[in-house]
Amino acid sequence: MTRRERREAIEGYIAILPWIIGFIVFMAGPILASFLVSFCDWSILKPARWIGTQNYGTLVSDPLFWQSLKVTFIYAIVSVPLGLGTALAVALLLNQKVKGLAGFRTIFYLPSVMPLVAVSLVWMWIYNPKFGILNFFLGKLGISGPEWLQSTTWVLPALIIMSLWGIGGGMLIFLAGLKNIPFELYEAAIVDGANSWQKFRSITLPMLSPTIFFLLVMGTIGSFQVFTQAFVMTEGGPLNASLFYVLYLYMQGFRWFHMGYASSLSWILTLIILLCTLIIFKSSAAWVYYEAEVKR
Fold first, then answer.
1. Which residues pair with 49 in a beta bridge?
2. 156, 242 contact by CB (below 8 A)
3. Domain spans, the chain
4. According to CATH, what is the number of the domain 63-287?
């Protein structure tokens, strides 16, 4: 390196030094500490005691661990495809050339940026079995509404339905993807006599596959990290029917002060998310189409 290049390199490292220090102190440090704590018995109030892999062994025989895993997987398997499909449907509707479209886009997007605690409180009122607006309208139709959040059968479907409240972000990304599809492809399809379904299946979906892939990965990661809704609305009840994994992790660490056990739960969750993400990435070769991709 020349003297000038060396000086530029030093200046560059000095410029990013605050970020490096912040990453080490606030991210890398806690991550490493949590890994070490996962091998300890630590109640915060007493010094940590090394117990090896005992925390990980306890997970296997912990029924609440398996229940939280079951609840989280069911939620992820149902809510992620449902959210993607709904966001795509709304994006297709809002991609039409009609008056007042900007207003409708704003209306659909605003709920996704609202504070989740406030949204949870609103939905608690909506789901109230006696005074909630949802059961009120069901009663007008002659349908006796369920107890929703107080029912072991309906609490998880209720939270899945509530997840559709936040489709605005995905809708906006789908809209951007739709705008990037060349209109010439649709013109060629019209000349060939393709109907609306054929254009959607053969043009829209393949061209949107990178967008779907991105939202699928992000949605899957987010679905495994559900916490606020369950914490505010149900606290895992009734009878642990809505005991999400991160809520159980929080209870172990900050309610029952089993910080070592909570750390082991967090690392298992990391591995699960990593495995699911790798599976999605591996499968993407079969269905994700990149327009600029050149095969050699």
1. 41
2. yes
3. 63-287
4. 1.10.3720.10
CA atoms within 13 A on the CB side of 127: 23
Look at residue 27 and tell me whether its pLDDT is greater than 90. yes
∠ CA 277-281-282, rounded to 5° = 115
Q: For residues 56 and 110, what is the distance between their CA atoms, to the nearest angstrom?
A: 42
* Angstrom distance (rounded) from CA 164 to CA 83: 6
Asked if 224 and 72 touch (Cβ cutoff 8 Å), the reply is yes
Cis peptide, bond prior to residue 238, ω within 30 of zero: yes
Q: Which residue has the higher pLDDT, 148 or 100?
A: 148
State whether the Cα torsion 95-100-102-106 is positive or negative. Answer: negative
User: How far is residue 287's CA from residue 176's CA, in Å, rounded to a whole number?
Assistant: 20
Q: Which long-range contacts (CB under 8 A, 24 or more apart) does 263-268 make?
A: 263/34, 263/35, 263/37, 263/38, 263/55, 264/38, 264/55, 264/56, 264/59, 265/59, 265/65, 266/34, 266/38, 267/34, 267/35, 267/38, 268/56, 268/59
Distance CA 73, CA 79 (A): 10
Residue 176 one-letter amino acid: A
Amino acid at 178: L
Length of the chain (residues): 296
**Pair 232, 121: CB distance under 8 Å:** yes
Averaged pLDDT, 146-167: 95
Burial class (CB in 10 A: 0-12, 13-18, 19+), 248: buried
Q: Which amino acid is at 272?
A: I
